[in-house]
Amino acid sequence: MEATYRALCEHGYASLRMQDIADETTKTKAALHYHYDTKHELLLAFLEFIHEEFVENLETIEGDDPVTRLRTYIHERLTPHDEQQHQRFQTALLEIKAQAPYDDAYHERLAEFDRRSYAFVHELLIEGIENGTVRSDIDAERVGEFFVTTINGAETRHVAINHPIEETRDFLLGYIDTTLLAEESPEVAAR
């Protein structure tokens, strides 16, 4: 799976060949074909692999309260750690996403990312409402959808037109402060 990641970053989706993936490992192309008949099957397994990593990362997001965890999540999603590698991978992933309307298997795996992202943000908002750090009058479902859509859109704009992803990150972090925090929350009181 790591070799698939490296090959995707290097060649993109459209140009990727099984040989390119094999070249990133000590395995032969024939060995890859023993486990995966086609590039499509291998990429489906790769999407499953990165989904599992994504879920594991969600479970380790740190913070003493839901607002801090939401901020950390936004920061992690919208801050490239290695700009060039991030851009290459996000470009390859965007190419896979472009296939989803025509490929049910890609569609379902990508939809699972979306469902998990939404569930994570929604749960944080509900927890924040319940513990008094998030305003009780917000619609957690709609705000959760807003965050997921904005994050996904920021990643796409960053890849497609090189729009600075940190601008969206900073806007969302500011939105939390100006719109979501409960007046009684310690964070509002500290302002």
Automatic annotation (TrEMBL):
InterPro entries: BetI_C (IPR039538), Homeodomain-like_sf (IPR009057), HTH-type_TetR-like_transc_reg (IPR050109), HTH_TetR (IPR001647), Tet_transcr_reg_TetR-rel_C_sf (IPR036271). One of its GO terms (molecular function) is transcription cis-regulatory region binding. Residues 17-36 bind DNA. Keywords: DNA-binding, Repressor, Transcription, Transcription regulation. Residues 1-54 form the HTH tetR-type domain. It comes from the Archaea. Gene3D superfamilies: Tetracycline Repressor, domain 2 (1.10.357.10). It holds the Pfam family TetR_N. This is TetR family transcriptional regulator.
